[in-house]
Amino acid sequence: MQRGHIMTAATPPDQMNARQFGILVLLALMWGMSFLFIEVAVGAVAPIWVVATRTATGSVVLYTIVRLRGRRLPRDLATWCHLGVLGLVNNAIPWTAIAFAQQSLPSGLAALLMAFVPTSTLVLSVLIGAERLSARRIVSLTTAFAGVAIIVVEDLTDMSRLTAILALIGATLMYATAAVYAKHFLSGNQRPLVIATGQVLCTAVMTIPAGLVFAPLPPAAAWTVPVVGSIMVLGVVSTGLAYLLFYILIEGTGATNASMVTYLIPVVAVISGAIVLGERLGLSAIAGGALVVAGIALSQRTPPASAVEQIEYEPR
Q1: Taking a C-beta distance cutoff of 8 angstroms, is the pair 112, 228 a contact?
Q2: Whole-angstrom distance, CA of residue 136 vs CA of residue 268
Q3: pLDDT tens digits along 250-265
Q4: Alpha-carbon radius of gyration of the chain
Q5: Residue 70, class by beta-carbon neighbours within 10 Å (0-12 exposed, 13-18 middle, 19+ buried)?
Q6: CB 151 within 8 A of CB 288
Q7: Of 280, 288, 262, 290, nearest to 122 (Cα)?
Q8: Start-to-end CA span in the chain (Å)
Q9: In three state form, how does the secondary structure of the chain look?
């Protein structure tokens, strides 16, 4: 929500059983704690290399999962072109922006700001005419924007933190653009897990050469056990296994219930950052984050207008 967007056929929401609820909590832990692992990695490795190494690892895991589930990657050039666009807009740019921002911001604050993704998606959908504004959605947008304003207001005089905040907001807009693009060009054409695998693979293919051009290869001394471990967790768990759990959850309980993970991710990120890294967020950040999540809740109470539901996630 690593935040990306998966398009899946709408499934009538069912009541969660204990197993499905456990998967939901585990998924929230995987994606919520990813902000913590990014924070550790960017302390020693350039943001572009964090993205390149995690996607290289994640693509191997995802491809293995796809083959074990009896699927194949697309074979036509048109689909791969679309996957390349998604890899750039949904992974390479926003994930690099998030890693860059976390050089200046605590992981919990980054997660609170990234919770703005559903709101950015709604705004873009309204602007292009794909969604209509209802009174409830107007209230939800106002609530979410107020939350971001409260979070940002304390950092308006700190240029490094303000730049990082703007990078995160830009990342939410990238996710929104990717969601609209995927819905238009790929919805219903491929299995969601295949789409995720293809776009993560494309991201690795793009970011590895970009890292070689724009950032020096990190020296051997930078690859400490905590750094390597964090990147491996980001690739194997947050980018690989989490996708599998997400699709299992959707198949079992419906896309609407699976989207509840959106509310849990920032909570997990804030708590894990406080416990492991000793981060302490101010009252304004907590209050603003609560308003952003409240805005999400209000917007998602409106039934989807089409046969396709959009699920936002943050695979970090």
Answers
A1: no
A2: 27
A3: 888 877 677 778 888 8
A4: 18
A5: exposed
A6: yes
A7: 262
A8: 7
A9: CCCCEEEEECCCCCCCCHHHHHHHHHHHHHHHCHHHHHHHHCCCCCHHHHHHHHHHHHHHHHHHHHHHCCCCCCCCHHHHHHHHHHHHHHHHHHHHHHHHHCCCCCHHHHHHHHCCHHHHHHHHHHHCCCCCCCHHHHHHHHHHHHHHHHHHHHHCCCHHHHHHHHHHHHHHHHHHHHHHHHHHHCCCCCCHHHHHHHHHHHHHHHHHHHHHHHCCCCCHHHCCHHHHHHHHHHHHHHHHHHHHHHHHHHHHHCHHHHCCHHHHHHHHHHHHHHHHHCCCCCHHHHHHHHHHHHHHHHHHCCCCCCCEEEEECCCC
* Backbone φ, ψ for residue 102 (5° rounding): -75, 0
pLDDT one-digit tens code per residue, 77-126: 999 999 999 999 999 999 999 999 999 999 999 999 998 888 888 888 88
CB 115 within 8 A of CB 294: no
Gap between the Cα atoms of 203 and 26, Å rounded: 25
Helix 107-114 vs helix 93-101: crossing angle, to nearest 10: 140
Q: What are 180-215's pLDDT values in tens digits? A: 888 888 876 678 889 899 999 999 999 999 999 999
- What tokens appear for 211 in the block? 């890292």
Matching residue, tokens 């929500």: 1
Q: State if pTM tops 0.90.
A: no
CB-count exposure of residue 306 (10 Å: 0-12, 13-18, 19+)? exposed
Place of tokens 């759990």: 245
Q: Which amino acid is at 203?
A: T
What letter represents residue 105's amino acid?
Answer: L
Look up residue 55 and give its two tokens: 């996607």
Work out the percent of the chain whose per-residue pLDDT is above 70.
89
> Does residue 155 carry a pLDDT above 90?
no
Q: How many CB atoms lie within 10 A of CB 251?
A: 13
Core vs surface per residue 45-60: b (16+ CB within 10 A) or e? bbbbbbbbbbbbbbbb
